[in-house]
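Batch manifest line 426
LIGAND: inosinic acid
JOB: complex structure
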Amino acid sequence: MANIVIIGTQWGDEGKGKIVDILAEDANCVVRFQGGNNAGHTIVINGKKIILHHIPSGILHEKIKCIIGNGVVIDPEILINKELKNLEKENFKVSQNNLKISKNAHVIMPYHKLIEEGRENCGKILKVGTTKRGIGPAYEDKISRRGIKVKDLIDEKSFSEKLDEILLEKNCLIKFYGFDTLNKNEILEKYLKYGEILKDFIDDTHKILINEEEKGSNIIFEGAQGTLLDIDHGTYPFVTSSNTVSGNVCAGAGFGIKKIDKIIGIVKAYTTRVGMGPFPTELKCKTGDYLRDKGGEYGSTTGRPRRCGWLDLVALKYSANLNNLTEIALTKLDVLDGLDTVKVCVGYKYKGEVFKYFDNDINFLNNIEPVYKEFKGWKNNYSNINNFEKLQKETKDYIKFIEEELNTPITLISTGPDRKSTIFKN
Ligand code: IMP
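JOB STATUS: finished
ARTIFACT:
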């Protein structure tokens, strides 16, 4: 294998978790480099569903070292009480041997969640429809250098001093949004306990990665969310608060750019989006409902119904270029089974002119009309198919068209949530 980056190419929920889990068979390390518990990576093994929020999907393979990198924001309450407990319940072994957390990752604090809740409740034009996990406010504090790092949780003096100063400001905001102010000692006590539980996992993960690289390990970098939610390149302000593009592996994990061998873009065979913001190919009709129901398109973190629509090749070309994709994994192909027609957006019509290039300006995207190429649908049931030759000609035409338009080979196709429901094309 090699060092591989796995990236969501749309608005998230492309099925990255399953692909990482499959590729992890040959990996030594799996690393998360951005986002936090706004992500919900679902993996199904022998019919058992596991949802991970911070922990890399490689944790289900016992011998793999999983790393939560410095670019991730961590909610220790969820990490400890939900993820670690759930993994233990399902008999997956997690110890300091297979899970490392960067000492430099930032912590999502209780005030982050309250401030975000207040903003989302009051917001009109600036309401984003976030996951309300405190992700944005935690990254704000990181950038403004007022953040609490994971290493602060095991340094009582420094943590206590920082909290004194930070809470002066945060409690004003919390009051402004109509919530009860927070008590410093309660936070300190609770979060020091989290630090005590996590201390054996906390490490210098950059150093660990250098060692792994020197040993010739195969490393997978697991992206969260999707390219169109990138803070710079996505549909701002309806985006998440981190860079979701492949380039952020270097900053978010502390890994050299020249050491990356492959960048695999995960493309769902149609498009979904949760939260507000432009969505050019959205289907507000029965076909959209069909995709939602058949694809189980409800958020694994918040349970919200996802907006559904056709595949958008204009947006995907943008994504392929931004991420420098070397390969594509096409997911949820089986969800399109049974439709009479399958459409793909190949252009945006704006003021009478057809554009082939994605511009992330929301006024542009809200006012375009998608130009579609239509494909004849297929009647076969592809659920759990793992042989490319079993696909009908119509389906192969659809796949070939995507490859040609994006100038990138599709090497893997997913036809169901289970590991076994996978076609290895090349
Ligand atoms: P935040 O990341 O919670 O701040 O939310 C910002 C936007 O990103 C909202 O539209 C969310 O619905 C969306 N978002 C965040 N994480 C995910 C994800 O893992 N999948 C899909 N959408 C997400």
